[in-house]
Amino acid sequence: MKINRNIFWSTLFVEELVKLGVEHVCISPGSRNTPLTYAFATNPRVKSFVHIDERVSGFFAIGLARTLQKPVVLVCTSGTAVAELYPSIIESYNQRIPLIVCTADRPSEVRFLGANQTINQLNIYKNHIRKFYDLDLPSLNIEKLKTFRNQINEAVAISTCIDKGPVHFNFPFDKPFEPDAYTDSINLSRIMKSISVQPNNSMISKKRKNNQKILNEIVRQVKQAKRVIIVVGPMMRDEEFINNLIDLSERLNIPIFADASSSIRFGKGNRRNVIVNYDAFFRSAATRKKLKPDLILHFGRTITSKSFEDFLTSLSCKKYIINDYGDLFDPSNNATAALKISPSRFCQIVFRELSSLSQLSTSIWLESFINLDSSVNKIKEEVIHASDFPSEATIVNHLIKSLPQNSKVLLGNSLPIRDFDNFVAKSEKNITVYHNRGASGIDGLISTAFGISESNNEPTFLIIGDLSFYYDLNSLLLTQNLKSPLVVILINNNGGGIFELLPIAKHKSVFDKYFKVGSSISFEPIIKAFGGVYRKVKSWKDFSSAIIRASRLNKLTVLEIFTDSTKSLQLRKDFWAKTSKL
Q1: What is the spatial distance between Cα 517 and Cα 519, in angstroms, rounded to a whole number?
Q2: What's the confidence (pLDDT) of residue 206?
Q3: CA distance 400 to 386
Q4: What is the pLDDT of residue 565?
Q5: Per-run averaged pLDDT (10 residues), the chain, 582 residues
Q6: Is 350 helix (H, G, I), strand (E, B) or coil?
Q7: Residue pair 293/228 in contact by the 8 Å Cβ criterion
Q8: Which residues pair with 185 in a beta bridge?
Q9: β-pairing, 184-185 with 2-3?
Q10: Concatenated DSSP letters for 146-185?
Q11: What angle do CA 536, 539, 544 make, to 5 degrees?
Q12: Do 469 and 523 touch, CB atoms closer than 8 A?
């Protein structure tokens, strides 16, 4: 049969990915990536999404991959298009989100010769990639085809399991690109038989072994310690882990300091040992001095709360970081060790090892934190939740009260995630919290929310500031293909709200010009131009009813709340002043 070898090579690539369970691809149009685009577009087992903007495409893929817990492919053309993907690759690298990045390139012999739309793409993401493959030009050589298939198998195994995160294939192509521009005649069945290989399932299922020595040491430390705390930073919701963690906490009378981004604050079941107001009461010097643990077990990423992180930094006790890959989430640089193990499995092992012993930590230790948590809740009700519209710190709690069951909530960086962490109470609603805390950038948040929305039928909510919203306006084009409700709570304080917390804010002449840089944009006509629904929120009652209404529409709805960042900051300070006296 007659073939175009570029198309044959790309089709082999796609078919091998499909065999390994890949089902989704995000494609940005271009010329040099025509063979890859054609191969994905004509495969009925792959769902394709077309995004003009590569940055939007990358962050959309992050939202999709995180929700599905499956790898998503990214395809783009050569040149600066490759660089546009980098922010999303950084995020996926830091959060260990599986992406298979495919960039088209010119043949190696024309690199560095001034060829049009050509940049140096050789391992361009080298600081934030799990594996890079600079491929040869498409070939019909049997050995090269075998090598190619083995590389595909290896890449999927790395991306999904061995060293989870993004992998990068750089595809050089020479013209012609189109399927009917034939370059060769082949015996297809003979070639496919010659390069037949079985997927390396042992590689795909391979995981790093637990460090048994560290695990044994932690069990011994837990047996001896009397003042243990569990810290859970931002992480993907895992019901098995949550249940096992709570069982362990109850068995040993250990308080759980749960970052709001961990989702542990939400859901039915006993959450009595879950402490949520630690940012407030650890601002008190007396509390920090009085309630020092002798052992810390840390799950998830670095905690959002700065006051709590400062407290952890000041401690000299044993501290163990526990996650699937032994990643060292320890900016204080005082961790004893990092343990590579499934957090859920760790809780099961410790629970089993200690099941024959009487309760170790005293209930007095646990009750101290529960009482503090309750005291802060009372102050929160008096100062924050009772405040007049439109206080920024109050928005998040009104949102939680109005959310439908099984909602997905993506937290914008800067102030939204901090207010959510500081002021959201526990709730029996089953809410899954998402975040882009890998690099904590303000880019790509709307795109990520679209990706989350695409992968489920439940309402998705995004809390975002005006500068972050402005930064990702291109993503609003995705509104045209929305199939489930996406509700954006746009907090507009005209930029720079987070910088009000910095000492530089006292230097008004510099601060107002160089830090608090407002967008001064009317977002309403822009949102409507993309087919979205816009509503300016006028009261708390209006906000609650708008949330309920928007969650029933299979559309993009933007609820804009105009706030005063200076007044909102003063309210937070009043709250912290009272809680610091506990």
Answers
A1: 7
A2: 45
A3: 15
A4: 86
A5: 94 96 97 97 97 98 96 97 98 97 92 81 97 96 94 96 97 93 85 70 49 93 93 95 95 94 92 96 92 96 94 94 94 93 96 74 88 96 90 93 94 92 93 94 95 92 95 95 94 80 83 79 96 96 96 95 91 92 83
A6: helix
A7: yes
A8: 2
A9: antiparallel
A10: HHHHHHHHHHHHIIIIIT-S-EEEEEE--S--STTS--EE
A11: 85
A12: yes
Residue among 114, 104, 115 nearest 177 (CA): 104
What separation, in Å, do the N-terminal and C-terminal C-alpha atoms of the chain show?
80
Predicted TM-score of the model (pTM):
0.93
Tokens of 536: 């300016």
Residue 508: phi, psi to the nearest 5? Answer: -60, -40
- Supply the pLDDT for residue 426: 93
- If you ran DSSP here, which 8-state letter would residue 484 be given? S
Place of tokens 């098995």: 240
Which candidate, 486, 416, 484, 414, places its Cα nearest to that of 446? 486
Domains defined along the chain, listed by start: 2-204 (3.40.50.970), 212-372 (3.40.50.1220), 387-579 (3.40.50.970)
Q: Cα–Cα distance between 283 and 116 in angstroms, integer?
A: 57
Nearest partner of 315 among 340, 298, 339, 338, judged by Cα: 298
Per-residue pLDDT at 312: 93
The three-state secondary structure class of 125 is: coil
Query: Which helix H or strand E contains 73, and what residues bound it?
Result: strand 72-76
Burial (0-12, 13-18, 19+ Cβ within 10 Å), 134:
middle
Rounded to whole angstroms, the Cα distance separating 498 from 259 reads: 19
**What number of helices (H) and strands (E) belong to the chain?**
23, 20
How far, in Å, CA of 479 to CA of 459, rounded?
14
Task: Name the residue with tokens 């009085």.
Answer: 290
β-strand partners of 3: 184
Tell me the one-letter amino acid at 146: K
The residue among 306, 305, 518, 256 whose CA lies nearest residue 420 is 305
Sheet containing 99-105: give its strands across.
47-50, 24-27, 72-76, 99-105, 167-172, 131-134
CB contact set of 565 (below 8 Å; sequence gap of 6+): 392, 493, 494, 496, 497, 500, 516
Q: How far apart are CA 516 and CA 291, in angstroms?
A: 38
Lookup: tokens for 255: 């308080």
Q: Quote the tokens at residue 57.
A: 């495409």
SS (H, E, C) 519-531: CCCCHHHHHHHCC
Decide: 100 and 155 in contact? Cβ < 8 Å: yes
**SS3 of 466, please?**
helix
Q: Beta strands of 396-495 (E only): which ranges? A: 408-411, 432-435, 460-465, 486-492
Strand order in the sheet with 228-232: 274-275, 256-258, 228-232, 295-299, 318-323, 337-340
Q: How many CB atoms lie within 10 A of CB 559?
A: 23
Question: Residue 473 burial (CB < 10 Å; 0-12/13-18/19+)?
Answer: middle
Contacts of 190 (CB under 8 A, 6+ apart): none
| Percent of the chain at pLDDT exceeding 90 | 78
Asked if residues 335 and 328 have their Cβ atoms less than 8 Å apart, the reply is yes
Query: Of how many residues is the chain composed?
Result: 582
